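Methods — Computational structure assignment.
A single polypeptide chain was analysed. Its primary sequence is given first, followed by the predicted tertiary structure written as structure tokens.
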Amino acid sequence: MRYILEDSTLRFKFNTRRFTTGAPFTLAGTPSLAVYPEDSATQITAGITLDDDYDGKTGLNDVVIDLSADAGYVADKAYTVVIEVGTVDSVSVVGSVVYEFFIVAAGGMEDLITRGLLALPAAAPGAAGGLIISNAGGLDADAQRADVGAILVDTAEIGAAGAGLTNINLPNQTMDITGNITGNLSGSVGSVTGDIGGLAAGAVTDIQDAVWDGVLADHLDVGSTGEALNAAGAAGDPWITALPGAYGAGTAGNRVGNFLTGDAFVRLGAPAGASVSADIAAIEAQTDDIGVAGVGLTAVPWNAAWDAEVQSEVADALTAFGAALEATSQSILTDTAEIGVAGAGLTAINLPDQTMNITGNLSGSVGSVTAAMAELTGDPGATPTLAQAQMLVYMAIRNARNTTSADDEICNNAGAVILTAALSDDTVTFVKGKYA
């Protein structure tokens, strides 16, 4: 709601829209407006100027009201502006509310603005409930100011983000520290019961060195990792001695120690070249020439002795299959000759009853279509089959049809209504709705 001074000029705009689409539409029918006071059914029409399709904009209406034009415009009262005469798209809009305003008496705007503000305390200054003053008493501003100054001195020592707190001595306590400790912890930490989120690379290295360089004899508690490592070193022998060393014949240490000097030559045999590796290198050089899938075999000479063999195989194949191939070819030629160019010879095809889609044109006549089409029971939709579309036209022409001023009905053979379309006529436009 808008607040406006009495005897001033009020100006506002409103839109009118077509009901069917919501688009702006002209307020027609020699339109006019009226104003109702909040406590009266008596209209005020004086001082109202209405300009429809303002500035050439369809549906935009400009209104000017001179509040000094009628004694009915008084201060401290709300008013409602309505359409007194007018239509939108031939539909009456009389009584539609387009605006509301409240008239304020001259000089009353200040009172309107200050409404709701509290008055100053009624108690004496310095007393309970009174204003703060600079003298002795419960609300001594001077004492409070001194306290604030002392607080500022203390907080200055803290520094930005606590930078001045460099000598904090925390008593024994339990606390959660979230963040990083960038200095040193002097003293001992009783225990760390939670998970350690992460360690710096140097700390990880220090821990690794301390673990692996520890004296094994100091970590032999029953069931410990140190006990297992000590037992493995004494009984399992992690091969810290030279091979084959004292390992007897047939043992793993003896076999590994002698593999490349004794058993290897016995099992592999003496190399053809300087060494086994030299032989492998020579083989690799030759296989490189072959290439992937034999792609490098580009100079294999033809052996004349192969000619007779190839010719013999070809002759046997022709003898075995030639006669049968010839007979089959002649039969195919005879059949395809009957088909003709582009199927021109296919003049007596008798297709059995079947369902098929024909994408093209049927030139000529169709002997008959004997299958009956089913009667429709309702709306076949926006994309009916050919049979459904034909049946809808047939039923609309043949069967009973009930037409009133409000609707048009299509019936089935028994007379029952299957589709209805709404009808309307305002003497200007006749409208028929969709059958459904």
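Note: Residues 386-432 form one domain.
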